[in-house]
Amino acid sequence: MNKVVLITGSTSGIGLGIAKHFAIHGYDIMFHGLEENGQEIADEIGEAHNINVAFSNANLMDPSSIEGLISDTVKLLGGIHVLINNAGIQFVSPIDEFPNDKYESIISINMNASFYASKAAWTYFKKQKFGRIINVSSVHGLRASEFKVAYIAAKHGVIGMTKVLALEGAPYNINCNAICPGYVKTPLVENQIKDQAKAHNLSEEQVVSKVMLKKQAVKEFVPIQAIADTALLLAKESSSTITGASFALDGGWSAQ
Question: Taking a C-beta distance cutoff of 8 angstroms, is the pair 20, 231 a contact?
Fold first, then answer.
């Protein structure tokens, strides 16, 4: 039987890239996302790689919906072995103008959802003496930048959560690690470029060169393939001693 992976936010961006990579390596996949054609995306990948797939648009701001997402994964695909908490949203604003509802939404989706999903999957992982939790945090889980107070608070929180779950999971062959990408050319980052241009009064091209990639040693967006490769490594049976770690894939951004 193939191992089963649930990837939140896997119908676009980084999550979709990870899903395609896991499909190539024979994992059955529970896709999750808000795209209207999410089921079609899942089915196409399933057919292309001869794997079992399912799709959910569960509301990650609702703990009971997250619990349902985990139970649906087990019911539809026969189990759960790997949980990749990838879904995230962003909003850029100075703190004195930061809308309260945006703050609450970002904390809920970017951090709290990882807790509820991990908690719900934990029973299955513990019983089968195997589980892999991969939290897609951010280089902003390791370093801060202006105008992103909610996102950075959430991503720092995910790093702390990762460490705790690694410690608690060790006796049960459950590992937990965080991947911390720098800037990746995804729809979320495309929106950030527009928001940053407004906040800094710059052109979008200037935002990329003078704001986003300014601190990177390698002046390129991080390829999704590098993130997918790292996630696959962390999901393997052989990764049992790799736990509680944060992997910065950021072009040298955090090396300074």
Answer: no
CATH class of the region 4-182+223-248 = alpha beta
CA 219 to chain centre: 23
What are 181's strand-pairing partners? Answer: 249
Q: How many CA atoms lie within 13 A of 79 on its CB side?
A: 17
Residue 93 has pLDDT above 80, yes or no: yes
Distance CA 154, CA 160 (A): 10
Please state at what angle helix 63-77 crosses helix 113-128, rounded to 10 degrees. Answer: 40
Domain spans, the chain: 4-182+223-248, 183-221
| Tens digits of residue pLDDT in 133-171 | 999 999 999 999 999 999 999 999 999 999 999 999 999
| Residues whose CB is less than 8 angstroms from the CB of residue 92 and which lie 6 or more positions away in sequence, other chains included | 147, 148, 192, 195, 196, 199
**Owner of token pair 């049976």:** 237
What global pTM score does this model have?
0.94
Could you list the active site residues?
151
Q: Which amino acid is at 141?
A: G
Q: How is residue 161 written in tokens? A: 């959560």
